[in-house]
Amino acid sequence: MKNAIGYLGCGLIAVFVAYFINASGGVLLLELLTLGFLLSCLIYSLTKKRLRCSISVGSDVANKNEQFELEIRLSSGIFPLPTAMAEITLGTTDNLSVVGSRQISAIVMSKRPTVIKAEVKAVGCTTGSVFIEKCVIHDYLGIAHAEVTRTLGAEPIFIKVLPNIPETGGQKEVLRATAENSSYDEKDEAETNETSLTPTGFPGFEHRDYIPGDSLKRINWKLSTKKEGLLVRLDEKVASSSQVFVLDIPPGDMFGGVYMKNIDTTVEAALAMLDMLVREGFESEFVYYCGGMWKKADIKQYGDVVLLQEDLAQLRAYPKDKRFAHESFGKSTPPVCFSSCMENMPGELAELLENAAGSFVFTKLSGVKKVSANVWLVDDNYEFERLS
Questions:
Q1: What span, in angstroms and rounded, lies between the C-alpha atoms of 10 and 30?
Q2: 193: which DSSP letter?
Q3: How far apart are CA 311 and CA 13, in angstroms?
Q4: CB atoms within 10 A of CB 36
Q5: Are strands 243-248 and 157-162 parallel, antiparallel or unpaired?
Q6: Cα 246 to Cα 50: distance, rounded to the nearest angstrom
Q7: Distance between CA atoms of residues 23 and 328, nearest Å
Q8: Kindly report the CA angle at 121 between 120 and 123, in degrees rounded to 5?
């Protein structure tokens, strides 16, 4: 409004000069002002219709806390005229962050696209996106402006951010609970008359005290409870079944900050658990929805955890109709479910409890309380705590 009033004032001055001082000079000044206004309106009108924008990036995979460069290309269909001033605001999901100002201003002056570079930092795992949140063009005189975001044709780009595999050490309570939740044959765990004789000549398995690094599958949990100390079985007959883990990522507010952080902690806590079990010699299955389908990863060694880490980089929130569409939710041996549900998501949390049974792991950030008999919370340091 101020620019419009100022321009009108210049016109009045030109009229005053033409009438009282110099007619030809005043008329020339008035003509120049009128020509400038018409040219500005023409360029402004053409820019609204023909300005185009695209975003590109060298690699669509990034590590957490890594910065990467993207290019914003502005092209014009009105060359040799320059375009009006374009003011672009970049937007990202909350696991990505623009380094510096999110607002960029530019004019396309030539036939070639104008290339603008921006730095983005990956701050959380799973798939994030960078997009044009808003684009406003201004005429040269600063009188008019219009938003042209919808007509730019700028498609968002997607960046897959690799989660970390945190090292948590051996958390004995978690390891024991995981082993007890597996479908072991109780006859194999107890002292028995069915198999080998011990060196003493009495029926049963031979045992020794647990040493850090021993396979978790060889711990005789029932006998250890009686003896108040971990005992490792020395025979070769061990259970082959493994614990099943399921990852649950329901749709939520991807632009609220807190929920994206909650997803990040949930995914990395699951990887921390798998890594901890592998180091103890424990095999497991990990079920998750990714790339438009449900997948199952057999985790037998550390390399399997690394492959899973790479695949989880492309993780997104599950479609509502696919969330529980996997047989693991209906197994007789309930899985351990890592869920990113939060206290302020009562509908999603209720659906989880209705469709899944067994153990649940939530983050402390989620605010979820003891909603079931077997609930664990994990903090930002990936320490697991069982709610009593």
A1: 8
A2: S
A3: 69
A4: 14
A5: unpaired
A6: 49
A7: 89
A8: 145
Domains of the chain: 2-37 (no CATH), 50-162 (2.60.40.10), 184-233 (no CATH), 243-386 (3.40.50)
C-beta separation of 370 from 355 below 8 A: no
What is the Cα–Cα distance from 232 to 211, expressed in whole angstroms? Answer: 8
* pLDDT tens digits along 90-147: 999 999 999 999 999 999 998 899 999 999 999 999 999 999 999 999 998 888 899 9
Within 10 angstroms of residue 115's Cβ, the number of other Cβ atoms is 11
pLDDT single digits (tens) 152-211: 989 999 999 999 999 887 777 776 666 666 544 444 444 443 333 333 233 345 676 776
Strands 145-147 and 384-386: unpaired
Residues 6+ apart with CB under 8 A from 32: none
What is the pTM assigned to this prediction? Answer: 0.76
Contact between 371 and 360 under an 8 Å Cβ cutoff? The reply is yes
Compute CA distances 103 → 106, 109, 118, 136, 242, whole Å.
10, 20, 10, 11, 52
